[in-house]
Specification:
Blueprint (H helix, E strand, L loop, with lengths): L4 H7 L15 H18 L34 E3 L25 E3 L8 E2 L2 H12 L11 H9 L50 H13 L8 E2 L15 E4 L8 E9 L12 E6 L10 E4 L3 E3 L22 H27 L18 H17 L1 E7 L7 E9 L2 E4 L3 E5 L15 E2 L12 E12 L2 E14 L7 H4 L7 H21 L5 E14 L3 E4 L3 H8 L2 H8 L24 E2 L3 H5 L9 E2 L7
Parallel strand pairs: 4-20, 10-19
Antiparallel strand pairs: 1-2, 2-3, 5-6, 5-9, 6-7, 7-8, 10-11, 11-12, 11-15, 13-15, 13-18, 14-17, 15-16, 16-17
Helix pairs in contact: 2-3
Organism: Grosmannia clavigera (strain kw1407 / UAMH 11150)
Pfam families: Clr2, Clr2_transil
GO cellular component, one term: rDNA heterochromatin
């Protein structure tokens, strides 16, 4: 296909046009050719070994690695460009940041998505080249960012489906790339969002999703209901949870409460959330209207840390601050300043001066936008520091109460769910001095720093106002034996729940692809039982466990997804999120009577009901 430089610049909204295509002899072109060659060689397994000339192993395979470097030129219709930096004639300063934060390149243009669609790195383009090299004619088989977006944008408009259970959804899993260069199954590789302060703008798909849902939903929250929670659900977001969201046309991240989950038309209840209604946090009376946003511009709360509060707000909880008074006093101060300025202007227009003793009033300490922003941060800190239970069961004793679920800080957690917990040696006590139940393995000795296990919750209870969790504790493990022959893997049945099954399905699909491609002995992941009915106190629970591939795609962890596409998956996503009680500014506040009491006046709407969720309040 291809685009001329004029077509690219005409379609671009940038104030700095791209230059002419770089010649093959340019440093950037050479660098891309080398990096593309390495990426293609790595993904196809080309030249991993050479014919045995210097020795071989017991199987007759060569032990001599191929150190040949391969160069891959751009396919026909694709061209490499930079935005020439001011004062530079050849674009050699292309890696710098131009005016307004624009990146100067180099970029590869030519994708059918449009003249301004560009690959920003050799790693991005390599995924597309793998598809071009394959026999596939379906763009859905390409895992590059631009093809994924092109296919997604071609989907029909979305409409609301109220009763949504946020459970199983197919997760893209890489498949083997044999010597014939068959294309991998789509694996989204978006740009990583590294901090809440700024991020790439939402894709047009997110805007279309939000607009479609906004037209088909009502603004009256009291008329909406959510489906009952399902233990072990794999979806990333749930009703009444605190999340980060990216407002339309803005790069900053903001905080809000999920009011309702929405799905695409025709999708089963097991499909992933497509969008959500969000109530922004803020000061009472200053909250902005609720938003309907695509799930790709939402993030779990523990993805980021809340920035420190400004002077004047630090050390205060949301409930402790008198927000109406703060708003009123600053509004009055702003009005006084405006009135004085008008009087001064009128006097000058008439050639007069203000009466003796007239003094300019003090400026307001904060503007309304600042007050609302600080209120959202204070509210988020308060919500994260509290918990409230629901679904009461018969009491075990006068002091022990059992529940079906809990809002633990930002997250909704129910029996059957998976949570990240502190790993523990055999016989060690939990935060309340209790033993950890029976163990299925010997964990003696020191555990590596940061070791995290996964608990399937069997019981949620409060004991003298202390929150406790009881469940089977697992750790992801990899066996090198043939599938099904490892005694540890088959000693116990895998934990029940769609989330546990999906995590193994993804990991074993990746391992199968890698082992088949490399003709290695079959390996597989399994859930290794560490404790049966282990106990964990509230401060030993980090937060919900999310399916690694779903979380990586949502957080735009390009490195993790690229490694998965190459057949490698570790525990990066288990450690990708913060621990609830170790986030900045954490001040424990304990149990609240209900989720509404926890959120307080931080949102301007009533929480819509969740079917089956009955709180003690």
């Amino acid at each position: 296909m291809g685009y001329s430089t004029q077509q690219i610049n005409s379609a671009s909204r940038s104030t700095q046009p791209v230059g002419e295509p770089l010649a093959d002899t340019h440093d950037y072109a050479r660098s891309w050719a080398v990096k593309l060659g390495k990426a293609i060689k790595y993904n196809l397994g080309v030249g991993a070994t050479t014919p045995a000339t210097a020795g071989s192993n017991s199987n007759g395979a060569s032990t001599v690695a191929d150190t040949t470097s391969y160069l891959v030129r751009l396919p026909q219709g694709y061209s490499l460009h930079v935005r020439p930096h001011r004062g530079s004639r050849d674009g050699r300063k292309g890696k710098s940041t131009g005016k307004g934060g624009e990146r100067d390149g180099p970029f590869v243009f030519g994708h059918p998505l449009g003249p301004i669609a560009a690959f920003r790195s050799p790693a991005e383009l390599a995924l597309h080249l793998l598809w071009l090299l394959s026999d596939s004619t379906s763009r859905a088989d390409c895992s590059c960012r631009l093809c994924v977006r092109m296919v997604s944008d071609s989907l029909p408009p979305l409409t609301v489906l109220l009763p949504v259970a946020t459970t199983r959804a197919p997760t893209p899993v890489p498949v083997p790339v044999p010597a014939t260069a068959a294309a991998p199954t789509p694996v989204p590789v978006p740009v990583q969002a590294s901090a809440p302060a700024s991020a790439p703008p939402p894709t047009p798909k997110a805007t279309l999703i939000a607009a479609s849902f906004a037209m088909s939903t009502t603004s009256t929250s009291t008329t909406s209901t959510n489906p009952p929670p399902i233990g072990g659900s794999a979806d990333l977001f749930r009703p009444w949870e605190l999340v980060w969201y990216q407002p339309p046309q803005k790069n900053a991240w903001r905080l809000g409460i999920v009011l309702q989950l929405l799905q695409a038309p025709g999708e089963s209840r097991s499909a992933a959330t497509a969008a959500a209604r969000i109530a922004p946090l803020g000061a009472p009376g200053l909250q902005t209207a609720e938003l309907t946003l695509g799930a790709d511009v939402l993030r779990p709360f523990l993805s980021f840390s809340v920035p420190d509060l400004r002077d004047g707000f630090q050390g205060q909880t949301f409930d402790a601050l008198d927000w109406p008074r703060l708003v009123r006093e600053n509004a009055q101060a702003a009005q006084a300043v405006q009135a004085y300025a008008q009087a001064q202007a009128q006097a000058q227009a008439c050639g007069q001066v203000l009466p003796p003793g007239s003094v300019a009033p003090p400026l307001p300490r904060f503007d309304m936008a600042t007050i609302s922003l600080e209120a959202s941060k204070a509210a988020a800190n308060q919500i994260n520091a509290c918990f409230s239970v629901f679904g009461a069961r018969p009491k075990v004793s006068p002091t022990q109460c059992i529940y079906g679920g809990v809002f633990l800080g930002a997250e909704q957690i129910v029996v059957g769910d998976a949570v990240r917990v502190d790993a523990r040696r055999d016989g060690a006590a939990d935060g309340n001095g209790n033993g950890n139940g029976s163990s299925n393995s010997n964990n003696g000795g020191d555990l590596p720093p940061g070791t995290t296990d996964i608990m399937r919750i069997n019981l949620i209870l409060t004991d003298h106002d202390h929150l406790r969790f009881i469940g089977d504790v697992y750790r992801l493990a990899l066996t090198t034996a043939a599938a099904g022959s490892n005694s540890n893997a088959s000693a116990t049945a895998p934990p029940e729940g769609q989330l546990f099954a999906e995590e193994l399905e993804d990991r074993n699909g990746i391992m199968l692809a890698a082992n088949t491609q490399k003709n290695q002995q079959q390996q597989r992941w399994y859930w290794h039982l560490k404790e049966r009915n282990g106990h964990r106190a509230e401060n030993e629970v980090h937060g919900r466990f999310y399916v690694s591939m779903r979380l990586a795609a949502n957080l735009r962890k390009a490195d993790f997804l690229a490694q998965a596409a190459a057949g490698h998956v570790g525990d990066d996503m288990i450690k990708a999120l913060n621990r609830r009680q170790q986030v900045a500014g954490f001040q424990y506040q304990g149990q609240r009577t209900s989720r509404t009491a926890t959120i307080g006046g931080a949102i301007g709407v009533v929480l819509p009901a969740i079917s089956g969720v009955i709180e003690d309040a």
